[in-house]
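Example 3.2
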Amino acid sequence: MTGRMGKLSLPVLGTVLVVTYTVLITFSDALTKYLAQSYKAPQLLCIVALMIALMSLGSGRLGKGRDKASLRTSCPRTMALRAGLTVLATVMFFHALATLVFAQVFLFIALVPLLSALMSGPILGEKVRPSVWVALAFGFAGVLCMVKVDLSGITTGHVCAFIGSVAGTTSIVLARYIGRYETNSLAQVFYPQSAVFLSMVLLAPTGWQPMPLFDVLMAMACAVVLFSARLLLVIALRHLTAYAVTPLMNLQFVWMVVIGFAVFGEVPEASTFFGAVIVMISGAYLVFDQHQGQQRRPDAAPLFSKPALSRVAN
């Protein structure tokens, strides 16, 4: 009995971490939306990314051992690739949000679970069973029920959203890959956010707006929430496959519907409720499949096998 509980604990822990992540990210989006009304994206990204990097560095200094204190990574090249993809995804999604309505952007975000399943085989060696593909397809269908999308024509915003989805998904998959070889989760937050800061600091002086104390406090709160969310996501990726984590991230849209109903009195349509139920059932099945997978034989060796790791990661 104890052994079975031990096996069950990892998927359950990963699920709790991801669900908490979605709540934090939803709160962060609300803060970002408030700040974005007065400040341009480079300024906000520069400030928030710097704060997150400093919090990662400070938390590392408080940790025990030199590895944590120095935020050292055993996969520098893979980490650099993940950092670059994070910058690309961040810039692309900000541009998409500036030119498209949120529903259209969210549709591309909903592609992430399917993309992660496609990448999990060649990059991580994690086999995706037919039943998982069915669950992923149902999850995507649930998103389509929740989001009314009318793609009358392809614009640069749609292209940016798709590029952001691919780049963001690859970054998530690489986070799980790195997590196989090291347990220093703070490094996976520090380096990508440092890369975002260094990229945005070049653009931030253009159109820089002075910030009153209240807005500075809001930016700090956003950074604290994002830091916590990013750290939880990295830890969750150690316990759940990428294609199980990403559908659970779609719960973020469910929370937005709940907040809209509870706070703003926005009554969603029946299709929205139906889609939310499908998303939650799909995510629950993938967590169950993760638990069952622990009782099966390990997946095939990944493309980035140990010999390749010396070339790719070191």
